[in-house]
């Protein structure tokens, strides 16, 4: 009995020893290891540690992502800084280009202004002096070099030919001087330019088929002949050397206007007005082929005479006579040697007499004193000019 108990006890001890050895072998091999849990839980986004061969922590995956993001931010900032530098450099280059262009424009303007000063047209005084010296050829050399070949300043002679329509309205408080007339006329004008700015001209206008109303009760017409003659010394100035430059022409004019009726006529007197006046004309080219022309004349003191015909018609003693003229027209230029011209003009002559008229007025039967006459001409012409 005792022997059996001893055998059973030994078997239990042997089994316990084997189990103990087997359990310890499991723990020693590492298959069963008790690890202490950290009191701080790892965030859900945190990933496993990365270790080296010795098991030392190197970097978490999250830190790698942060480093990459930081690197990307640095690269973006660097790229932005480079772009800003490039933009600033481009702006500087652009500013330099603008400044350079402005400098070049200023240089060009300076050269143009200087060249303009160098090619100024010789003055009227210099050209007048050249008429009495050997400088005339230098004057014409300037125009040959600086002025367009089609510029009218290159003409030394000009001839105008123009048919004219004229209406004459004479109003007076003396019936012998109160009449009207409508007729055709022909105007011929010639000009010679000693220099491009100094010349002389002559103009003649004579009527064709003109007449005036008579004092007779049957309202018959009286043949009449109009003759207008002007001689002038002309001075021009052009504002530039271009053929489109504006110009002004000043003239000193010797004028004589006549109206002649038959010597046996008893209704009208023969009239003549003469004297010296001035003229001013401006030429305004709107293109190389067309120019507007405006001007006028003024005769502050003229000599007016009434000549005897069939009877001695006399309005009194001539005290004062003045004349004022205005013109507006244009020129179509085909070339320097040919232009078509048109003109619409009017002249008003005022005659004032003192004392008593020579004959009683047929309309009133009384003899007027201090007779006055306003003689107005309205003219339209269309003509042609030759230049050489």
From TrEMBL:
<keyword id="KW-0732">Signal</keyword>
<protein>
    <recommendedName>
        <fullName>Outer membrane protein beta-barrel domain-containing protein</fullName>
    </recommendedName>
</protein>
<feature type="signal peptide">
    <location>
        <begin position="1"/>
        <end position="20"/>
    </location>
</feature>
């Amino acid at each position: 009995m005792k022997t059996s108990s001893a055998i059973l006890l030994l078997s239990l001890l042997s089994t316990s020893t084997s189990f103990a050895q087997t359990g310890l072998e499991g723990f020693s091999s590492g298959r069963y290891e008790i690890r202490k849990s950290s009191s701080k839980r790892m965030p859900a986004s945190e990933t496993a540690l990365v270790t080296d061969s010795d098991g030392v922590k190197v970097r978490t995956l999250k830190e790698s992502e942060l480093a990459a993001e930081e690197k990307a931010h640095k690269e973006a900032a660097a790229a932005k800084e480079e772009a800003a530098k490039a933009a600033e450099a481009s702006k500087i280059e652009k500013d330099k280009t603008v400044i350079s262009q402005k400098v070049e424009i200023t240089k060009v303007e300076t050269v143009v202004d200087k060249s303009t000063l160098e090619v100024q047209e010789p003055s009227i005084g210099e050209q007048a002096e050249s008429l009495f010296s050997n400088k005339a050829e230098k004057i014409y050399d300037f125009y040959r070099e600086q002025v367009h070949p089609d510029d009218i300043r290159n003409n030394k002679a000009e001839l105008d030919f123009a048919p004219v329509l004229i209406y004459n309205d004479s109003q007076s408080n003396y019936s012998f001087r109160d009449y009207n007339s409508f007729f055709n006329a022909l105007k011929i004008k010639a000009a010679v330019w000693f220099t491009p700015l100094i010349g002389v001209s002559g103009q003649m206008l004579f009527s064709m088929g003109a007449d005036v109303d008579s004092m007779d009760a049957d309202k018959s017409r009286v043949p009449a002949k109009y003759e207008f003659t002007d001689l002038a010394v002309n001075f021009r100035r052009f504002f530039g050397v271009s053929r489109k430059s504006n110009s002004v022409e000043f003239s000193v004019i010797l004028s004589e206007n006549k109206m002649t009726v038959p010597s046996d006529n008893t209704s009208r007197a023969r009239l003549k007005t003469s004297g010296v006046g001035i003229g001013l004309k401006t030429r305004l080219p709107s293109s190389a082929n067309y120019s507007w022309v405006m001007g006028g004349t003024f005769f502050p003191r003229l000599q007016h005479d009434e000549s005897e015909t069939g009877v001695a018609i006399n309005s009194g003693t001539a005290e004062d006579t003045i004349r004022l003229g205005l013109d507006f027209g244009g020129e179509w230029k085909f070339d320097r040697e040919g232009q078509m011209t048109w003109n619409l003009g009017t002249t008003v002559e005022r005659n004032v007499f003192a004392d008593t008229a020579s004959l009683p007025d047929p309309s009133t039967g009384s003899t007027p004193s201090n007779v006055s006459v306003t003689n107005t001409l309205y003219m339209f012409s269309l003509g042609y000019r030759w230049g050489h």
